[in-house]
Specification:
The complex is a heterodimer of chains A (111) and B (113).
Chain A (H helix, E strand, L loop, with lengths): L3 E4 L2 E5 L4 E7 L6 E7 L6 E7 L4 E4 L2 E6 L4 E6 L8 E7 L7 E2 L3 E6 L1
Chain B lengths: L4 E3 L2 E4 L5 E6 L6 E7 L5 E8 L14 E5 L5 E5 L8 E8 L7 E2 L3 E5 L1
Parallel strand pairs in B: 2-10
Antiparallel strand pairs in B: 1-3, 3-7, 4-5, 4-8, 6-7, 8-9, 8-10
Classes of the chains: A mainly beta (111), B mainly beta (113).
Chain lengths: 111, 113
């Protein structure tokens, strides 16, 4: 089955700097890669996703890149703000199968 | 509009007792998922319902865990003879279909003493 590894487990950045979180997956048939943000006491919320037919997707300060050959994908947050502080999860699936999540990255943006 | 709701928000129980956790998905969503999130860990898939198809139970950790989805809407996750290692946050999510965005509820924090 699918296995998703996520790094780093914790990340601290200064406000205004960029943050990068990386994930690798094992199942070459996976074709859907969402990223979720989880704030304290809340359920995860989708912030961006990418499907295997594209290599990059951007939404304002957030971007995701996908390298199918290497089986890894990354989340990039630019111009970080204190409200970006949260736990971020990557996930992968074949689309019609349940998501397999990474273990999460706790991002702290220091003002 | 209403999102996914879960009840109770917190549940404290004694080892050996049975518990029921409820999930109300977004109206019209055919897919419903249960996950478990242990402290500092990622989300562990438990069970998946899609329409009228037989559920995917491949993530259930033991036969003490079971789930139902009545009328294609509300779902109940039941844990029998709870153990301390069952303590976690149980999250429910729903989506329009299997390849659509999953919307998560706020979770039920289960503590087994």
């Amino acid at each position: 089955g699918e296995n998703v590894e996520q790094h780093p487990s914790t990340l601290s950045v200064q406000e205004g700097d960029s943050a990068v979180i990386k994930c690798t997956y094992s199942d070459s048939a996976s074709n859907y890669f969402p990223w979720y943000k989880q704030e304290l006491g809340k359920g995860p919320q989708l912030i961006i996703d990418i499907r295997s037919n594209v290599g990059e997707k951007k939404d304002q300060r957030i971007a995701v890149t996908l390298n199918k050959t290497a089986k890894h994908f990354s989340l990039h947050i630019t111009e970080t703000q204190p409200e970006d502080s949260a736990v971020y999860f990557c996930a992968a699936s074949r689309g019609n199968t349940p998501l397999v999540f990474g273990k999460g990255t706790r991002l702290s943006v220091i003002a | 509009g209403a999102g996914v709701s879960q009840s109770p928000s917190n549940k404290v129980t004694e080892k050996g007792k049975d518990v029921e956790l409820r999930c109300d998905p977004i109206s019209g969503h055919t897919a419903l998922y249960w996950y478990r999130q242990s402290l500092g860990q990622g989300l562990e898939f438990l069970i998946y319902f899609q329409g009228n198809s037989a559920p995917d139970k491949s993530g259930l950790p033991s036969d003490r865990f079971s789930a139902e989805r009545t009328g294609g809407s509300v779902s109940t996750l039941t844990i029998q003879r709870t153990q301390q290692e069952d303590s976690a946050v149980y999250l429910c999510a729903s989506s329009l279909g299997p390849m659509n965005e999953q919307f998560f509820g706020p979770g039920t924090r289960l503590t087994v003493l």
